[in-house]
Specification:
By secondary structure, this protein is mainly alpha-helical. It folds into two domains: about 30 residues, no CATH class; about 40 residues, no CATH class. It is built from four helices and two strands, in the order βααααβ. A two-stranded antiparallel sheet has the order 1-2. The two termini are about 15 Å apart. The C terminus is likely disordered.
């Protein structure tokens, strides 16, 4: 297993945090909380692990599914660049 990567909050969580919290110093924390509580971060991390572990196996049976999963991860990465822990 690979170590968990830390993700910046998603763009949607950041937009919501800006609407909820007026203090800019707290917006990042609120956005992280939104992502964690909605399960987005866990879902993204699990999808990355599944593709890393079984991507080739799944791709032989359903290449479209793996391509879609990779596209979603790229999209998430575009909105929220990964940061080292």
């Amino acid at each position: 297993m690979t170590p968990a990567t830390k993700h910046a909050p998603s763009a949607g969580a950041l937009r919501a945090a800006c609407q909820i919290e007026a203090d800019p110093s707290l917006q990042q924390r609120v956005a992280e909380l939104i992502d964690r509580e909605t399960g987005l971060r866990a879902l993204t991390e699990n999808l990355e692990k599944i593709i890393a572990e079984a991507g080739d196996l799944v791709e032989t049976r359903s290449p479209e599914l793996v391509a879609e999963a990779r596209a979603v991860l790229r999209h998430c990465a575009d909105e929220a660049p990964r940061q080292a822990e």
